[in-house]
Write a structure and sequence with these properties.
heterodimer, A: 263 residues, mainly alpha, MetI-like fold, B: 379 residues, alpha+beta
């Protein structure tokens, strides 16, 4: 099929991939640079990874981020799943359209606005900004992503499975936990992964809602970059890229396996 | 003893005025918004009956079944099961089980776990569950597949698992929504008989929803033919076929010819019907119509003979031209075009392999039928 691989296609493919991945590739390569200067290659070394591990501030920020991401993703998954169930099931309740719109609006809302409004809220109720406020803010915006992912799965979910469970004597709650949830679990986990990564790399909302002692990794990196890019930053970014890539690969492999099994 | 159709029934509680009704729908109406799915419907079903709800899609038959299962609540009227009003009783507290059209097998559980699901909800002790599951697997001949997941089974096997699962709790009534709909023809015929045997052996009441009239005819003690949320006729398969109550039922079940006409008069047991083109028919059924009423004479194709010559002692005979022939193997269907342009369908059993001087397209031919072959309908 030489015809389908015309010169034009090859060129656009190469350009496209270069556009997407060249910056990342440079970052990864330079994280293994010996030199302190980011732009001058002087030989392979892993010293910046060691420096990174010894950088107390960076590691603290990483730990804060991990905790925020874990807690917010977990809570958002529960809330988002509940919202998705309500939206797909009770199609006739009053104000459903409004509610749907309100759940999904944060998807398109500029982050600056979300961040600012949350900040105003926390100030208004004089909630001390810190770990809790970042976490709450992350739950707020990642919840709707979970809701979207879970809802799309629930739409194709055969309601009669749940009815069959009830028919066999399970209360609606038991039917949900024993039948519905196990069946939609892949979507729920995908939602969790999405919420986790969203929280992991959020800078804008975290900057608005965080306080002293709760600096997240993106905030830390951003503030350090303003003083100049160090190879240490390259190193931690490479680690982050690695984590996200592994996560994405695992999720897609798992869903592929399930898909194959189903066939 | 003479009977309608080729079978006689020993089980017929509906003819016994003292028989205790088991399931009663009393003036049940179900509306979804403005749409009426079930319209002021009353129906009585007896214990151990194999009852079918037959109708086209959207006639309300599935809604009726779902109301009995507890998945829908009647807007008006009430449903009684063994004398108990089912209003407000949720599905998980009803002594009925349902086999869903999609089978609704739990995809994340093995065949065994699927069958055990209902028993676990009951809190049955583990050894008893295992015993019952084994029994059910044996019943549907699926012992070898106990550890499989539903997606590793064929359509027919899934159907069996669904059946086993819905029977595992030993319900008083089993509701089956298009139980054979997803199976291919051969398998469907086999399964029909298995279902009938199972129902007999277990002594259960079966209520089946189907749009397939052959299926309903083959399996049921009685059939309710439904249309637009109402019951058009409740009767045995033979009565539905041989003595339909209306043109709708006659037309819905099997194929049939209608001659619209006027009741011209009667003498003794014979009724004369004059149809639109002036032909008079002699029929031994009058459907309580009186002279001058508009009536429809309905005749099944297999009760009409097609011959080259006019048969000597035919009560009724018309001549026309052979317009179309469909050879189906067991029967041959002739479409005979009368001189006024109407087409009459007649079918002949092919009881011989070779036929002398067989009819062919555009031959002149006579169609004839006896006086008791037709049914007179008034609506």
């Amino acid at each position: 099929m030489a015809g389908t691989w015309g010169r034009f296609n090859v060129v656009s493919l190469v350009l496209g991939f270069a556009f997407l991945y060249l910056p990342i590739l440079l970052l990864v390569i330079y994280s293994f640079n010996e030199s302190r200067l980011v732009t001058v290659w002087s030989g392979f070394s892993t010293r910046w990874y060691v420096e990174m591990l010894n950088n107390r501030g960076l590691m603290d920020a990483a730990w804060v981020t991990a905790r925020v991401a874990f807690i917010s993703a977990s809570v958002a998954t529960v809330l988002g799943t509940m919202a998705a169930v309500a939206l797909t099931r009770y199609t006739r309740f009053r104000g459903r359209l409004l509610f749907t719109g309100m759940v999904f609006a944060p998807l398109v809302m500029p982050e600056v606005i979300t961040g600012l409004s949350l900040l105003l809220l926390f100030v208004a109720v004089s909630f001390d900004r810190g770990f809790a406020t970042v976490t709450i803010a992350h739950i707020t915006f990642s919840m709707c992503f979970v809701a979207v992912v879970v809802q799309s799965r629930l739409i194709s979910f055969d309601r009669s499975l749940e009815e069959a469970a009830m028919d066999l004597g399970a209360t609606p709650l038991k039917a949900f936990f024993q039948v519905t949830l196990p069946v939609i679990l892949p979507a729920v986990l995908a939602g969790w992964m999405l919420a986790f990564t969203l929280s992991l790399d959020d800078l804008v909302i975290a900057s608005f809602t965080s306080g002293p002692g709760a600096t997240t990794l993106p905030m830390k990196i951003y503030s350090q970059v303003r003083l100049g890019v160090t190879p240490e930053i390259n190193a931690i970014c490479t680690v982050l890229i690695g984590l996200v890539t592994v996560g994405v690969i695992v999720v897609s492999l798992v869903s592929k396996r399930r898909h194959l099994l189903r066939q | 003893m003479e009977s309608l159709g080729s079978t006689r029934r020993s089980f017929a509680p509906w003819t016994d005025p003292d028989a205790k009704p088991y399931i009663r729908f009393e003036n049940v109406t179900k509306r979804f918004g403005d749409a009426v799915a079930v319209d002021d419907l009353s129906l009585t079903i007896y214990e151990r009956e194999f009852f079918s709800l037959l109708g086209a899609s959207g006639c309300g038959k599935t809604t009726l079944l779902r109301m009995l299962g507890g998945f829908e609540q009647p807007t008006e009227g009430r449903i009684l099961l063994d004398g108990r009003d089912l209003r407000g009783v949720p599905p998980y507290r009803r002594p009925v089980n349902m086999m869903f059209q999609s089978y609704a097998l739990f995809p994340h559980m093995t065949v065994e776990a699927n069958i055990a699901f209902g028993l676990k909800q009951e809190g049955m002790p583990k050894p008893h569950i295992a015993e019952r599951v084994a029994q059910m697997l044996k019943l549907v001949k699926m012992e070898r597949f106990a550890r499989r997941k539903p997606h590793q089974l064929s359509g027919g096997q899934r159907q069996r698992v669904a059946l086993a699962r819905s029977l595992a709790k030993r319900p008083k009534v089993l509701l089956l929504d298009e139980p054979l709909g997803a199976l291919d023809k051969k398998l469907r015929e086999e399964t029909q008989f298995e279902l009938m045997d199972l129902q007999q052996d277990l002594g259960l009441t079966f209520i089946v929803v189907t749009h397939d009239q052959e299926e309903a005819m083959a399996m049921s003690d009685r059939i309710a033919v439904m249309d637009t949320g109402r019951i058009m006729q409740v009767a045995t398969p033979a009565e539905i076929y041989e003595a339909p109550a209306s043109r709708f039922v006659a037309d819905f079940v099997g194929s049939i010819n209608f001659f619209e006409g006027v009741l011209a008069g009667s003498a003794g047991t014979m009724t004369r019907i004059r149809d639109q083109s002036g032909v008079e028919f002699q029929i031994s059924d009058d459907a309580n119509a009186v002279t001058g009423d508009t009536v429809w004479l309905a005749i099944r194709p297999e009760k009409i003979s097609v011959t080259r010559e006019r048969p000597a002692e035919a009560d009724n005979a018309l001549d026309g031209e052979v317009w179309d022939i469909a050879y189906l193997g067991d029967v041959t269907v002739y479409n005979v075009k009368l001189d006024d342009g109407r087409i009459v369908k007649a079918s002949t059993m092919n009881s011989q392999r070779r036929v002398e001087d067989a009819l062919t397209w555009h031959d002149r031919a006579w169609i004839s039928f006896s006086a008791d072959a037709g049914v007179v309908l008034t609506g």
